Amino acid sequence: MKIRDIVNRELVNLTNCEQEPIHIPGSIQPHGFLLGLKSKDFTIDYCSGNVSDFISKSHKELLGHRFEEVFGTFAQQELQNYISNNRMLSSLLLKVELDKQLFVCTVHLSDGIYILEAEPSNEQSKNANEVYDHTTQFLTYLNGSNTMKDLCQLVAEGTREVTGYDRVMIYRFDEQYNGEVFAECCREDLEPFLGLHYPHTDIPAQARELYLKNLLRLITDIDYNPVPIYTLDDQEGKNLDLSLSILRSTSPIHVKYLQNMGVGATLTISLIHKQKLWGLIACHHYSQKNLSPDIRLAAQLQGHFITSQIDLRQSSEEYEVSRKVNMAYDKLSMFELAVDGEEKYEELVSNPEILNICNAAGVALIIDDQVYSHGHVPEEKDILFLTGFLAKKSKNSSFHTNKLLDLLPNHPELSKHTPGVIFHSLDIEGTNCIIWFRPETKTEVNWAGDPSKSIIKDKKGLSPRNSFELWKEIVNFSSKKWLQPELETVAAYSYSLQRQISLILVAKEEEKYRKLSELLSETNAELENINWISSHDLQEPLRKIQLISSMLVNEEDLPPSVGKMLNKLNLSAEKMQALLSDLLKFNKVKYNTEPFFEVEVSDVIQDLIEEFRENYEFQLYFEIEDLPIVTGESFMLRQLFSNIIRNSIKYRNPENAPLIKISSPESIDWEDQEDDEEYHYLIFEDNGIGFDQQYAKSVFNIFTRLHGNSEYTGSGMGLALCKKIMQHHKGKIKAESQEGKGTKIFLAFPKID
Description:
In the N-terminal section; belongs to the phytochrome family. With 753 residues, the protein is α+β, with helices and mostly antiparallel strands. It contains 18 helices and 30 strands. Strands 1, 2, 3, 4, 5, 6, 7 and 12 form an eight-stranded antiparallel sheet that branches. It has a six-stranded antiparallel sheet with strand order 10-9-8-14-13-11. The protein has a five-stranded antiparallel sheet with strand order 16-15-19-18-17, with helices on both faces. The longest helix has 54 residues, at 484-537. Residues 455-465 have low confidence and may be disordered.
């Protein structure tokens, strides 16, 4: 049977300490011994090298044997009962006799191995009732404290009384895990550490991670010699995770750090709040010191008291702030903006409550690139620059900081003047927003040694600093931090302000559209009046012009030139009369209220064909298919079909006799037709001169003419009137044509059940 140790012998220094695997050191502290038992059969697979210091057997005699074989059936049963009752890592420790000696043990499971850590039972340790008397007394202290600082001070005093350490500190972390001695109780002859700050490098990330897993850490003698852990050499890379171990050996870097401080023994208790490391109870002794497991648990209970009270105490401290800002919010909520907002915006930012809702020193409201500001604020150009930057950074949402320089390192003057800002966008574009400002607050931080020299280099290489003398730092370019009640109140008010501004913008738009609607109504009324005058009042003067010009033309003694001019005058009057007649027809469509009836399209077409054949001297040809019955106003439909046929005759090809085909297909491909719409379709197709397809839509516009007056007469309103009639019938009309190959006019009438 081959045995080897699992000691981690990697060289650790400050260049690689952040990657140090401190959870698998492969060794323990010597004030107890460790056994690693396979969970299936309790075979001893790991054993610390100092086991012979506590019992009569060595690690070589234990490895590979079952626990029962070595320590007997009774001890085996005690261990199994302890495990099966889920008491591992609980406040109930396992007290068991091993090799005729009484030990106090902790047990936990790690990767399929039960790790048993045994320490000799100290008969002179404090009785449990004595320990809990201290706890009961401490509870009365809790009830008598109001602030978090008061509570932590009581915890420090109570923990020192329970444990007897020379110094007990409550160590609190900030966002970057820099630490501060928040409360302290120590021997009178010792220099106090209260208020000192320590850089985050003092406790590296992997150490903080272990503090989250294992809430109690004990070093009984800083100058101890680590005890190796041995195992059977039956597997390559075999190791043991000691993250939850009490006896786990400590990083040599951490030991050196404590030696530089002159510390002889330590106890550390984690303070966890919302699954994050809030702080530590750090106990220092300046000589060797061990605690019995029951006293350790009593000390750990002090930590539980703190963590259970953090929310309550912080809420108590923030209550007064919350009360004041909410009072300011209630007053500010009574202030309402108006549509004529400029004066109201000025009045709003001048209202003292808008600063009180977050204890700011200045505020700026930006509406449509207009800046309304009050109090301690930057220049207007800087405000516009800053709001544009923050709108982009926050994606038109919200943002806050107490150190603007971290965001704008190239703008130190702006960052120094108002380093604290809260930004809230008031629209999705970020053009409207509000921003609160706080001025610079210089802060003096007392460090335990220069934080920039937390690592020193000497002839031995890199090592932790050995100077912890007071070092003062002045912190510039930062403001007082924004508290959570301030941020919440500002957010609530910003949302309220955003709603008010949105309502104002909507009201302005409604007023704008109302005025435009009134103007449009007046314009339409004027146009209708002009249309009425042109289509009625001008008819009579035109008739008189025609009558007089006709009479003058018949005079025998008129010079030829005068007669020619009178003929032109008469022709112009006829054209004007035709235009006015078409305008009247076009206008009548809008106001037509005649009821709709079923109309036989075939009958209307036959009447029109007979009428056209009587009025034209040349031959007209028609091809008529079966046509549907449509619902509409018969007079208007007659006008519609008449205009289409008349256009086909007017724009006939002089080389061919006019041929007009009228059909009714089952369907026509129409771009804007919905799937569930049903129509009756008509197609009027001729063999006329046609036109370029690019004008297929414009031919339906009023007064549109594709040919000159010298070639074809007309007002250019025929197809416009057709479109108007189809719109009146909720139908559709379109044209397809090709120059020299005729024109097709498509009509779609809705089917009405």
